[in-house]
Amino acid sequence: MANESRPCPCDIGDRFDYGGRGQEVQVGHIKAYVCKPPAGTDKAVIVIHDIFGWQLPNTRYMADMLAANGYVAICPDFFVGQEAWKPSNDWATFDEWLKTRNAGKIDKEVDVVLKYLSEQCGAKKIGVIGFCWGGAAVQHLMLKNAHLKTGVSLYGVIRFFEDRSSLLHPTFFIFAEKDDHIPLEQVTLLEQKLKQNCKVDYKVKIYPGQTHGFVHRKREDINPQDKPYIEEGRKDMINWLNKYL
């Protein structure tokens, strides 16, 4: 389980060997993983990775799942070539590592990706999802990027943008009840601020008994008690995107 010396336990649960159905491409100055649906579509979703980076099999699995549900899915390297965090790294160095990877400074990369999706993939309606670090990045984008239609923030780190709640687009916030990294008091405070300041549709949902990173795990049958919530979280995410894209 997570503790103070391991501040971001996205790697908890079942790591899995997954190759991915998509391909790696160069998009402007960054690399990206792209997976397209069997039929043509003008809908796309940007997938923002967690601290373990754009090549994490779990995240590519989620991108492929979006493609299977009819979206062009793209997971860019928002660390722009900088090394992703490794579970074997010393957590005492995490804050220093994080300083050069700011979830609120990805706008240049997002603009490049939006241009690619529009010009190369024919996308007209574009949403965004993100996990942990990426979930915080989703909240940042929902506060300022006019070109995105909707977002899903999965266990996004609230403290990064806790004072900002005037969202531009419908946003769905997914949290885990037993997340050692995001206390429920923070979630309650976020809900209060959204209620006061948010003029668009939003939803905050806490999944019982779950821990950080629960939605983008695989081999759920190893933890049978979690499986229904993992499936529910994924279904809720897809339903939200379907509603607003």
From TrEMBL:
Pfam families: DLH (PF01738). One of its GO terms (molecular function) is hydrolase activity. Keywords: Cytoplasm. It is found in: Cytoplasm, Cytosol. Belongs to the dienelactone hydrolase family. It comes from Stercorarius parasiticus. This is Carboxymethylenebutenolidase homolog. It comes from the Eukaryota. The keyword Lyase does not apply. Residues 30-245 form the Dienelactone hydrolase domain. PANTHER family: CARBOXYMETHYLENEBUTENOLIDASE HOMOLOG (PTHR46812:SF3). One of its GO terms (cellular component) is cytosol.
